[in-house]
Structure formats: C-alpha cells, structure tokens
User: Fold these one by one.
Assistant:
Number 1:
Amino acid sequence: MIKQLKRKFIMITMSLITVVLVAVFIATSVIHYSRLTNDSYRAMDRVVMSKTNGAFQKPKIDEKEERRDFQFAPIFFVDLDSDGSIVSTTTDYVNITEDTIKTAVEEVTKNENVRGSISKLNLLYLRHINNDGSMRIVFADQIHNRESLFILMRNLLIVEIFALAVFWGMSVYLAGVALKPVEKAWANEKQFLGDASHELKTPLTVILTNLSILESNSNLIDKSQLKWIRNSNFEAMRMKELIEQMLFLAKYDSYQLPTVAEEINLSELTMESILTMESIAFEKNVEFKDKIEDDVMVTGNSSQLKQLVNILLDNACKYSDEKTDIKVNLKNDKDRSILEVNNRGNVIPKEDIEKLFDRFYRSEKSRVRKEGGYGLGLSIAKSIVKAHNGKIDVCSNVEEGTTFRVVI
C-alpha cells in the first residue's frame, strides 16, 4: 500500500510538472517564432516604404540596420510596373533563381492580401501599391526563422529533460518524507494485526479443543445445554476463520507469503475445488456447469491458487438464486490462463463494484448474517492474484449475471 501511495504521489507530482514544462515549452516556442516573424515583417516594411519621387528604390539604411534586416532576415524584393510586369529585382542578400522569383510573384498577385506567407516556398511577403499602379513586393526567407526555432526547441527539450530528471529525484525524496508517518502507522498496524492473530490462535485452539471434548462426551451433559456448546463451537470456528484470513492479509502486506513457484495443472485443481463445493451447491439448490480445457498450466503456489478458486466458487454459491447454474470456464489464451465464474443472483450495483475487493466490504448488507463471512474473501482473492502477477475483475448485469474473471 505504501509503495502504491508513493507511486501515486510521484506520478501526480511528475504529471503536474510535465504539464507545466510542456506549456512553457509551447509558449516559449510560439512567442519566439512570433517575434522572429514580426521582426521579418518590420524589416520588410522598411524596405517596401523606401522610395524616392514616387519610384521604388533600394532602401537607404545605415550599415548596422542593413546588416540586422538583411542578414538575420534574408530579404529580396521585386518592383512591378502598373501592368504587373517585373521591372527589377534586388537579390543582393539571398541566393534565389529567377523561376522561384516568378513563382513567388504569381502567388502574391493571385490574392489581394497585403501580407502573408507562401508555404511551399518558405517565404513571407509584404506588398505595397503606389499611386501610379506600380508595385513593390518584398519577400523574406523563413528558413532562417525555422532553423532558429528548431535550435531553441532543441535546447528547451534538453533543459526540460534535465529538469524532469531533477524533479523526479526531488519527488522521490519528498514522497519518502511526506509518507514516512503514514508508513510508520501502516507498519504498526500490520505488526499489530499479525501479532494479534498469532496471539489469538493459541487460546482459540484451546477453546475449540475443549468444546470438541465436551461435545464428544455429550452423554455427560444435559441435552438442553448441548446446543450452547455447539453454538459456541460454531462461533469459535468462525473466529478461527477470521483470524486465519486476517493473518493471510497481514503476511501479504508484509511480503511474507510463501514464494514457492511450481508448475500447476489449474484444470485439475479447479475440478477438485468444484467437487469439494458440490455439497454446498446442493444445499443452496444450485448446480455447477463447468467448461474446463485440459491441462491449463500455470506457475505459482498450489495452496494459494486452490484457495483462490474456492473463494470464487463459495462466493458464487452464496449469492446464487435457487435452481440456477454456476458456470465455471477455464481456458488458455496464448500465454495467459483465464478463469471465469458466473452465477445468477442479485446484480451488484456499479458503485459497489470498485469497492468489492476492499477489506470488510459487503455489497449486500442485508445478507451478511444470512450468508456469513466477513468481507475478506474477495480481498484475499485479489491479493493472491496480484501475488501471481495476474488480474481479477468483475462485471454484473441482469442479462448475464455476475462474472468474476481471473487472468494469470
């Protein structure tokens, strides 16, 4: 549980940081490219408005400004007469062919926009029409801007990767510090649960032994008192079951479950469990219908897997309507083994399904006393499945009933 909390803490923190860094990355890139584009348009605007006596001329700007406008935003311009014919071109600062210039001019004259871009040529353009109908079109090469944007994005990416690595380390450290009190409390709770279970087993065993002796010598006891002995024995057995379940969960939480892994024939194990549960099914007036493939093999702990199957079958028996069938299916699917247990009974509400595997949770409160149990069975089943690196889920509806599905 503590590891899960740490992972969630780290993932939430890293997700928020990643969102912020991505937002900064995008915003910085957009602002940088917009600034470069605006600088290009400003340089183009100075060029397009440079004219003498109504005729466009090469702009008269000082050397420093010229270097800034033309070197860092490569610009060329074309002068056209009132008929749209090219009068002159100025390409002192770029290397471009006449065909490209003609194509660019044609693209600009096709529309009425004063400024814009020609994507296929990677050019920005700005045009100005003089009073006599002549025109100057100024072009700026976008390749330089895009290269500058690429360099910025690459540097930002490197910085953000480094920042994420630093924040990851900080998140791991802060998660450890923040959850330390929780971890201590959880450890104390597990220790108490384990110790209490162990301490209770001894006196409970003595009580059960004494009750068994009394019951076996019923001829020495008044028959009117015998029912109290039997009731006490029944409740003691239930308490023993509860203690064993709590001890199992305590071992799971402390990673103390047996780790023996062997090849197990899950088909045979499931059939054995079905045969064991036949008497319970008979009492409930339900019947098992199995469809089990031969030799479904898994690697794991035999006793735990048998406990898992028993829990699912017992749960199906408890909550099945009378005169219905419990369907047990087992099959291989590529490298997975799939076990499904289906029963017909009251539909589990959607809001209860997510909580169904929580400890001590009971979906049907009205049937707790009638059916017995403590709400730990499905929690144990989930722990066993997780210990075998598997997955367990449940679906419940009126049409198909309730189905528990285990994938290992």
Number 2:
Amino acid sequence: MQLLILLYLASILSGFALINVPTTAIITPGIANFFDIVGGIAIVVFSFVLLYHGIKSLIKK
C-alpha cells in the first residue's frame, strides 16, 4: 500500500513538472498550454485519490 501512495505522490510531482515546462523552439505555446491542462488534471485527480485513501484508512481504524 505504501508503494501505491508513493506512486500517487510521484504523479502529483510530475503534474507540477508538466505545468512548469518552459516554452522553447521545440515546445510551442500551444503544446505548453496542453501540458498545463494535463498537469493540472493530474494534480487534481491524484490529490483526490490520496485524500480518498487517507479518509478510508482513518475510518478503517
């Protein structure tokens, strides 16, 4: 179970990394906007999953 939680935390960090991708000659502003959206969705989804697992473990005890 702890490895799964660490995977969720790594997914949240990767979402923050996607949001902070700088625009260069290869990464155009359109692609950067897409990365912002995908990163934001990843952060929100995996944060809710972590909250769900936390509440579930509190109720279980």
Number 3:
Amino acid sequence: MTALAPGENRPAPGDQLTVTVTSSVPVDVSALLLNAAGVVRSDADFVFFNQPVGPGVAYRHGNGGPDVVQVQTSALPADVDRVAVTASLDGRGPATFAGVGRLTATIGSGSAALTFPIAGLTTESAVVCVEIYRRGAAWKVRAIGQGYDDGLAGIASAFGVNLDDEPDAAPPPPPPPPPADAPAQHSSFSSQQGAPPVHSDLFDPKHAEVNGLGIMKQGSKMIRVGLNGEVMARAGSMVAYQGELQFKAQGSGGIGRAIRQQLTGEGVPLMKVSGTGDLFLANSAAEVHLIDLDGTDGLTINGANVLAFEPTLQYTVARVQGAAAYASSSGLFNCVFTGRGRIAITTHGVPVVLTVDQATYADPNAAVAWSSSLQTGIKRNDSFGLGRLIGRSTGEASTLSFSGRGFVIVQPSEMPPGGFIGGTGGGQQAGHSGGIFG
C-alpha cells in the first residue's frame, strides 16, 4: 500500500476502483462527476446516499462499516473529466473535523492500493478527499484534502449542484372555512383532463414514489427499482412499472444452478428486467429489507426470501455446511450471493438480526439469511432437552446452529417456504414445503 502526501498524484491502480473512507466518527461519503470546467453536468452527477448510482460510479452504504464509492473509469462518459470523492460529518459526532482523530481515504483495485491520511482540518465539516482524473488516455489519482466550513451543501454548491427548489407560485386565496360539522378534508388529485379533483389521504406525500436510480424501499413491503440498465428479480414479483421495460424469464440462472436446483428443489425463479423506467416489486405483502454486499463476505439466504438483486452479484446453490452428516441432501441447500451489489430480501414479519459472538441456534425455517463466513451445523433438539417443543411448524426435531463471527437474520415465523408468503424456490419442490430448509 502506497501512502500519498497532500497534492500528490499517482496512476490509478486499475480500471475498477474502490474508494473507501474510514474515520474515527461517522461520515457521509459522496462522489461528484465533473466535466472539464470542474462542475457537474447536471444534478444526476451527484452520487450519494439518496442517489446511489451514476454513470460509471456507485455509492455503497457501509452498514456499520465505512462507506464506499466504486468507480469504473472505462464506463465514465467521455465528457466527465474527473470524479471527486468527499466526506462530510453526519451530525452524530463533532461539529467540525477538528474533533476527528482519524480520516483516511483508500483507493484500491485488486491487490494494489493507495492511501491518503487527511490531516490539518480545523473548522471544516466536509472535505474533498481525493479525485480520480483523466490525463490523456490514462486515469490518475490525486490527494486533495480540501475542507469546506459549510458541509456537504457547500461542496455540492461549489461544484455546480442546484440546491434550490423552483420558486413556488403565489398561493391562491384560502377557501372559506368549512362548517363546524363538515367532514375532514384530505389531499387531492386533479386529472389533467379537467375532471373534478379527487380528495383522499392517499395523496399525502408519504404515499408518493421514492426517487433515484437503483433498488430502494418503497414503504416497508415494496421496492422501487429506478432502472437504466437491468436488474434480476423474482419471477412474478412485479406489481407495477412505468417506462420502457422488457421482462425475460431466466429460470434459476445458469446451467449449473439449474442442475443443482433439480436435485435440491432450491433456487430462485428469476426474471431479468431491462430498459429505462420505474419497476415496483413485492411478494405477498412480506416485509422488505435491503442488504449491500461489499465483496468481503457473502450472504447465504433461503431462495424463498430473495426478491431482487443487482446483476453485479454472483449467486449459486450450495449445501448448508454441516447438514450432510445429519440427513439426506433434500432440502439442505441454500442460495449463496457473493460480490458487490445490493440485494432485496423479504421476511414474514419484522425480523431480528443476531450478532453471532456466542453459540447461536435458530429454527431452520425462521433463519432467513446469514453471513456465509459463519460455520453451520444441525443440532438435534433432543440434545437440548426440547424434543419437539420447537420447530412446531416443520415437525423436524432439529435446529440450525451457528458459530464464528457474523450475523443471522431471523424472522418471527416458522412458516416454511411455500406457506402464505408464497416464496418457494423453483425446481421440483416449488409450491411444497420440501425438507427442513424448504
């Protein structure tokens, strides 16, 4: 790893770069795509937590760890001259960087990495950490460390992002007050054809669709995918869409996975959705949750709980570790996702996320997903003295055990896949409960 001094520049260590900003306090990381004049081409070039995808650039939330910006230089538009990566204080810690003990930007690609320890900040609450810039046909990295006293808004404004909303038109005169016994009024929707307005609390802004590209939550039981490319989704999960989208059935994806699915009954019946527009997905009103994988660990998940994922993720079907010693192969396989990208999963009810730092056990149908680095095993319930007091919906006298370091997502239901949430995998067991893992 090579350390950069302020102002120093080096050749970019690769085409696909990962910029990680670590700090002793929480910070928000963002990126700006800048043209030759040093400003954004439009507000869409500001990539941050509310707009996580731009051309050639993607933001990933750290989920308790450092935030990450991914840059693929070969995918940057020809009129983008550089990408600036910033960090700003998020309000949960000190007001300025004078109270921050450590702030470091690392630019990695494969085994090569450049690091820039940022020091000397005082009254600033935001900083441009590094920039990735075009030099002829090549790309280089420069250590910046320039601070701003007015936070992320100051950086965004300095690089041409429009922070002002359009001025509102003068409001019409207020209507006369309703009679005391009149029913409560709600928001309204007026048809462009001039039909009388419709009044309902459904038109409250909390019910409006969210904005931005990529996979985002639309309430607690639906996701919206702002598409300008493609996404992989559970077949049959589309509830609405707008724009020019194409849908293509994918089976469970790949010949190898299709073969394993035939043997195991596990997998995800997929469709590939491509084009430009807005896609809305849900699965029988199950709770929806988003998980960002940064490539350091995989996610093992019951195929019944997969709703959608970005095509940058790789997925296969693998035997649950430790299961072979207990039972036959039927139903002892789950899906394993690896790589970098976002996945949307569903649970039957609001789950709990257990940190595995001691011996941990869960009903096989309640354990939705877990860190792939964990070691798993099958434990007979009789060895706990519980017999058939747990696992009531499955009729199985066994419990799934976890050890190591990681997390387990447990839903408040032992409903097997193929139950009321209708989320079985494909293959021969689709629509049936199958073995202890569905």
Number 4:
Amino acid sequence: MADNADRAAVTIQQSLEATLANRAQLATQAANDDCIDCGDEIPSARREAAPWATTCIECQSIREMRGKHVRQS
C-alpha cells in the first residue's frame, strides 16, 4: 500500500517528465531560424538571449500587446 510520500514521489516524477518533454518540444520548434508569425529571420542576438523563441521581437511584442488587450495604433 502506497503512502503519501510514495504518491508524492510519483507525482513529482510525472511532473518532471512532462516538463522535460515540453522543453524538448520547444527546442525542436526553436530550431527554425524564422519567425512563425511573419517568416522573417529571428536575429541572432534574440536567438542567443532566448534560444526557445519562435517569434521575432516585433511579433512577440504584438502578441504580448494582444494578450493585454492593448490596441495598436
């Protein structure tokens, strides 16, 4: 019969495995040097600062503004 510590260990292990799988998927997506929104090449400085980035800085800014419901002029 499993006790609380055993159940917690299983939950932690499952969470860790899910996180690692997610990171591997992000790394695969980020292997592309082009922005997924506009198709332009993602600058190398952004690649170095955020290797997981799938968008250029401008497109990411637009995404963040839309997320905050800010209207662009």
